[in-house]
Each structure stands twice: as C-alpha cells, then as structure tokens.
Specification:
Elements lengths: L1 H6 L5 E5 L3 E6 L3 E7 L2 E4 L5 E4 L1 H4 L9 E4 L2 E2 L2 E2 L2 H15 L9 E6 L5 H13 L4 E6 H8 L10 E6 L4 E7 L2 E8 L3 H16 L1 E2 L2 H11 L10 E8 L5 E7 H7 L1 H16 L3 H10 L1 E4 L8 H9 L3 E3 L6 H10 L2 H7 L1 E4 L2
Parallel strand pairs: 1-9, 9-10, 11-17, 17-18
Antiparallel strand pairs: 1-2, 2-3, 4-5, 4-6, 7-8, 10-19, 11-12, 12-13, 14-15, 15-16
Helix pairs in contact: 3-4, 5-12, 6-7, 9-11
C-alpha cells in the first residue's frame, strides 16, 4: 500500500541499458530518451564531461586529456563508476523534478549475466537515484515489447540481437522455458569489419566507420543488386590517409563468422524446444528484435536455416524499452518476471 502511494508522487522509469545504446521509458510518457551508451571523462579524474550522443561524437577523436569510453561491455557493466554516472545523468534528465519521491526503476539485463553482475546493475541504479530497482531479462522485455502473448500457454520465440549480446528465448506462460545468451552482437560485427579491412587492405578504420559500413552495405544474405561504398582510413603500410571502395559481398564475407554464431544459437535453442512448443512455432515462427535485426537479409537467412517463418519487429531498436514500459503498468506481472531490490 505504501509503495502504491509513493507511486503517485514519482515517475516510474524503464531502462534498456544496452552496450551500444540506452533507452529510457517514462510511465505515461513513453520512450523519452535514446542515446549511445558512451561517456567522455577527464583523464585521470573520472570527471564526466559529456554523456550520450555528444560523447559518441568524440569516440576516436579526443585529445590526451579526454577519454571517451563505453562503460558497458557484452551487455554488462565493465566500469561501475562511469555506468553509475551515466545512469544518474539519464535518470535526472527524464525524471520530473516536481515529483517529490525518487523513481521506481526497472532495468532490462541479458539473461546470461551472473548474480554479481545483477548486483552491480542494481547498485548502480540505486546510487544513481532509484527508489526501487527491478531487473527483467531482455528477451522477456523484448517479447512483451513486440506484443507477443507471453502469458498464454503457447510457444513464443524471440531473438534479441543487441550491441554486446544475442539473446534467444522460448517463452510460455509468462516464463522463459529455455534461453541462450551469447556475447556476440553488433559490436562483434563492427570488430569483424575492422579486422577484415586490416587483413585484406592494410587499412585501419575506427569503430564509427565500421558501424557506418555495416549499416550502409552490411548483409547476411545477398542483395538484389550488390552495392559498393567508399571507405576512408589510414594505410598501415604508408601511414597516410587513404580512400578505397569495398563491395557488399566483401562485407558479407567479413560478417560471416558473427552471423553464423547467431544462427547456430537459434538452432540450438530450437533443438532444446519441447515438442508441443515446437508445434506452435511452425505456425507462429520467431521474431527478431534489437539493432542487429536491421542487418539486411538476416531474416531471410534465419528462415532458410530453420524452415520457420521469421518476422522482424516493427521497431526493433525500441522493443526492449517498450517492454519495460508495458511491465511498469502491470506491477503484479512485474513481480512474476522480475526480481525486486527495494531501497526506500
């Protein structure tokens, strides 16, 4: 009862704390913030200079006195202090200052994280200003966010491909029947492109350039018409700036390893699926969400490899955040699927 009364005086918040991007959902307002999970700090002091989009523009372009870092690695906290500072910045940015009480926060986390890593997320959110912290597994949040009937006694399969992890889960009766999490996602794809350019062309490119290549001409399945793109970087032999053209076929070859890891993870999950739920999936198929779902042709490749209908979420980037928002309105359901850590 006391918790219910407090709810009237605070804005409940849902956070998709991703490796690449952080999205914040505020109850009654929807998604109000979507920014890169990047923080720029003063070297040697941990003083935060910029967070989000402003900090991302600094990646690879900072002087010695400023360091642009990504405090999340593979879906978990790699730097506790900086993650806490980032969360504090985001919570303060969206929380209505007129509200008298600190917000109740639900954070989406990868299904494969350890108890220690869960505690780190809870502590970071609490220190950043949360009154109560709940954790929900990302695949469950994504399934709710894309509108799957997770409370029904039927098989629902979600594949959430984020920046640091790929989560594959089979959900029925508001619970995860089987899930598999691999630390391969958008970041691994970017790294694969960086290594390919280095190996084949002796060209050094940065994270942002690799991401642009992946978004522009990256694919998991052939294009109707192959495309090319100009890439700028530093020639590792001459040490000078250089521009060259790469084809979508080359980038597909570069992405082959991380893509095959994702497909194998989906296949393993399907192999562990109980017979009755497998029968449901023949008709329902599976849904792909997360930023990785936007890789051209990934849905076609997964459909070919599994023989199931494959659908890409309408807005794959916001699926997890939307799911946390739905759960904020259903507190009884929240207590079923999330673990609380009350801090009044």
């Amino acid at each position: 009862m006391f918790s219910k009364i407090l709810g009237y005086f605070s804005s409940d918040i849902g956070i998709d704390l991703g490796t690449a991007n952080t999205l914040v959902y505020v109850k009654e307002r929807g998604i109000v913030l979507q920014e890169p999970s990047v923080v720029a700090i003063q070297a040697g002091s941990n003083r935060v200079l910029a967070v989000g989009s402003e900090a991302k523009r600094m990646l690879g372009r900072t002087p010695g006195s400023i360091i642009a870092v990504r405090p999340m690695k593979s879906g978990v906290i790699a730097d506790f202090e900086i993650t806490e500072a980032m969360l504090r910045y985001f919570i303060h940015k969206v929380h209505d200052r007129k509200k008298l009480v600190r917000p109740r926060v639900i954070v989406a986390v990868p299904s494969g994280i350890t108890e220690v890593e869960k505690r780190a997320v809870k502590d970071s959110a609490t220190h950043a200003g949360a009154r109560e912290v709940y954790l929900i597994e990302e695949p469950m949040a994504a399934a709710i966010g894309v509108g799957l009937p997770v409370q029904e006694p039927a098989g629902n399969m979600i594949v959430d491909i984020g920046g640091g992890t790929t989560e594959v889960a089979l959900i029925s009766l508001a619970g995860v029947v089987f899930s598999r999490s691999v630390r391969v996602g958008g970041d691994e794809m970017d790294e694969a492109i960086i290594q390919y350019m280095k190996r084949v062309y002796n060209l050094a490119i940065g994270e942002r350039t690799a991401e642009e290549i992946k978004i522009s001409i990256g694919s998991a399945h052939g294009w109707d018409e192959e495309v090319t793109m100009e890439v700028k970087g530093r020639d590792l032999v001459a040490g000078l700036p250089k521009t060259l053209s790469v084809t979508s076929e080359e980038i597909r070859e570069a992405l082959a390893e991380p893509v095959s890891t994702i497909v194998d993870t989906i296949r393993i999950t399907l192999e562990r699926c109980p017979a009755e739920l497998s029968a449901d999936l023949v008709d329902r198929g599976l849904i792909i969400a997360g930023g990785g779902a936007l890789l051209h042709g990934l849905d076609k490749l997964v459909a070919e490899q599994t023989g199931l209908p494959v659908h890409v979420a309408d807005d794959p980037l916001s699926a997890v955040a939307e799911g946390t928002g739905v759960v904020l309105h259903e507190l009884n359901f929240l207590r079923k699927v999330a673990s609380p850590d009350r801090s009044y």
